[in-house]
Predict the 3D structure of the following.
Amino acid sequence: MPIVLIVAEQQPDGNLRKASLNAISAGKQLADKAGAELHLVLLGKEPAKVADELKGSGAKAVHLGAAAELEHYLAETYAPAIAALAQELKADYVGMASTAQGKDLMPRVAARLKSAMATDITAINGSGADVTFTRPMWAGNVFAEVKLTTPVKVFTVRATEFAAAAGGQGAAEVKTFAPKVEASKTKFVEFKEVKSARPELTEARVVISGGRGTKGDFKEIEALADELGAAVGASRAVCDAGWVPNDLQVGQTGKVVAPALYIAAGISGAIQHLAGMKSSKTIVAINKDAEAPIFQVADYGIVADLFKVLPELRQELAKLK
Amino acid sequence: MKILVTAKRVEDPESKIKVKPDGTGIVQEGLKYKINPFDEIGVEEGLRLVAKHQGEVVVVSIGGKEVQEQLRHALAMGAHRAVWVNHTGPLDQLAIAGLLQKVTEKEKPDLVILGKQSIDDDQNQVGQYLAEFLGWGQATFASKVESLESEQEKNKVPAVTLTADGKAVRVVREVDNGLATLECQLPAVVTTDLRLNQPRYASLPGIMKAKSKPIEELTPAKLGVDVTPAIQVLKLSSPPARKAGIKVPDVAALVDKLHNEAKVV
Ligand SMILES: Cc1cc2nc3c(=O)[nH]c(=O)nc-3n(C[C@H](O)[C@H](O)[C@H](O)COP(=O)(O)OP(=O)(O)OC[C@H]3O[C@@H](n4cnc5c(N)ncnc54)[C@H](O)[C@@H]3O)c2cc1C
Ligand SMILES: Cc1cc2nc3c(=O)[nH]c(=O)nc-3n(C[C@H](O)[C@H](O)[C@H](O)COP(=O)(O)OP(=O)(O)OC[C@H]3O[C@@H](n4cnc5c(N)ncnc54)[C@H](O)[C@@H]3O)c2cc1C
């Protein structure tokens, strides 16, 4: 029986990165279509900590590879360990969520397995040996259906396009293995976390993003985010100026989000920005320029000064409670 | 330091990309081409590093004869010489990284700098493949701690720094929830993110000088790389358009819509 191996990810704080669950559900879909069996792998110093969260995901087995050297993620130490497991299991497909780690790691795994790879898949088509992937190109202006023809096929998953798999208790068998750890020419020095009390940008139900129109003043955006329990996002212009942390950038070359509600304030709507938020369920645009392209994708647009609209919106929303 | 930087030819990010009705490609008419923006950032970082440590920046591009335009652009920015791998037709990551591996083995640079992703195919893979093929360390998504408006940026200080013994580079990377710093033994592969630097414009003298800088021509056959693609692009399509929305006159109307129609608040 063919094997699909999905790599789950542990955050630096030890918790499971939630996008792993979306990748697992893509893996399940792929396994069903390809007539394959789903396996999961998690590496780290103490991967067992989150193993319970993976048991109910519909996988046959969860492989835990623990080693002290794997405490800090490095592509150079993780890739050989995953590739070796994939070979041992005779995996046909190896996938992971398209997180920063997924993007860094999976091409290295693919190279080691001499395999072709599809990044950021949004759909799985066909069945059996004819499975193909759909993936975005040109900032989401184009979707390509691609077929990988190497014996092992590697991919990363766009988390917003696959519902999260159920975590929790379940039937998956937990197996431990001794990962093959190779010496690394790269040393982990430090990780400077940007701490935030807000929900994770890619997981939030509501996202409020500010653009250059804020002139760097995010106070009203944050106040509205507090009111709605929302995450804060930004355009590239805002991150480039250093007004907010880089990892809040939404778009082609930043984060892809698809919340129930996306509010864009002072964002013009360049194609590169739209690439990261066009799949949101409801989009609101606040912009003083009636011709701004953001209005072409907005369900509700309001042509006005954001510094006037945002406080009013916050007060009106508070009244709903 | 000797630095090899890649320069892919891509559609101008401002272009409007449309899929051909038969789904075999994109409509080429009216398109303008540029160096991949991430590669331009790579050239800039290379130039800053050699300005500080001496050395040479070599640019490489794979494609038909038109990619010489992008090589000339990099040369006009200040790169010293160029390598052109002449090949027309689709190339997958295995092929591109395989060709770059051979060019790297020939050039023996201390550092290879690539873009984190091409803005056409958006794969974000080649640098990582190359690092694995070479058996080198990798630092993807290179960024810097200071903003693009900072003094460091104005003074063109390289964000990729050499360690005191000159045997490794320190790279700050844009990752989820923060910045991670790695130290990679040289030689190494670095891929650029947007906040690494603001690339310079090519000056007029730079453009003139670039005309006489050498471009060496190679081919996959000369490099001994089999470039048969392992990816079949079966069909391209346009994403479904979003249903046109409405403009609301004021905040009260907006809240009413969000509450009663969209039911999201
Ligand atoms: C390689 C590459 C990758 C890129 N990747 C991304 C990406 O991932 N994400 C991304 O966002 N961009 C990306 N970009 C940049 C993108 O092309 C745009 O430049 C950027 O999104 C513009 O940001 P903005 O909308 O905030 O600024 P602008 O385009 O300057 O728009 C500001 C808007 O604010 C409005 N405004 C001004 N004042 C007010 C006010 N008081 N009230 C209301 N409205 C006001 C203006 O009318 C205007 O529409 C990328 C570009 C390139 C070349
Ligand atoms: C319509 C269409 C059809 C295609 N058909 C096929 C096909 O049938 N088979 C197939 O295998 N591939 C095909 N491709 C090409 C393939 O999808 C990608 O070009 C390839 O996978 C490389 O990905 P990327 O350019 O996104 O690299 P990324 O990994 O995103 O690029 C990272 C960096 O690699 C460097 N780089 C990439 N390419 C070059 C280059 N040419 N020269 C110099 N540096 C470079 C750049 O520095 C870039 O910044 C097709 C592409 C399109 C658009």
